[in-house]
Amino acid sequence: MERINKIINSQEYIDWLSKINQSEKNRIFCGHSFSHLLDVARIMYLETLTKGYDYSQELVYSAALLHDIGRSIEYSAGADHAREGAVIAKKLLEDAGFSRHEVDEITLAIANHNAKDTSHTLSQLLQFADKKSRNCFLCSAQAQCNWKQQDKNMEVTL
């Protein structure tokens, strides 16, 4: 997990998370803090192991820990956070020493983690873990939430 630690300790990553936290300081809905990102990483890796996919822990964790990194751009400019996040993630991944193939795989997953239909397995894993990381059944803003009822995570399952 050496490369993961390079990412999360880089000033650029810390600055992007700070911008997201600042943008969401009064948010009543699900947030996108480091805690959320880490929950997604853990669920995603568990699902990877359960399904027998051949993705390394670092690959899975990097996709999860970077998947919402473009949120502050969405908030300030209205741009798609997934696409913007893939651009930001590319540099962070390269700086941490990920190979070209790994960077391509991870940034594709980040760019497509909100796509309605994707055949890309890492994107599917990221979508699954992102949704399952939300405890909608405990949320005080559940009634005001924009998610459709069938999309809410209303029980503890994997």
Features:
about 160 residues, globular, HD/PDEase_dom, single chain, Hypothetical protein af1432, mainly alpha, 8 helices, HDIG_dom, about 60% helix
Q: Can you characterise this structure?
A:
This protein has 158 residues and is mostly helical. The protein has a single domain (1-151), classed as Hypothetical protein af1432 (Orthogonal Bundle). The chain is 60% helix and 0% strand. The protein contains eight helices and no strands. Helix 7 crosses helix 8. The longest helix has 18 residues, at 34-51. The two termini are 24 Å apart. The model has no long low-confidence stretch (mean pLDDT 88). Pfam families: HD. InterPro entries: HD/PDEase_dom, HD_domain, HDIG_dom. Residues 33-135 form the HD domain. This is HD domain-containing protein.
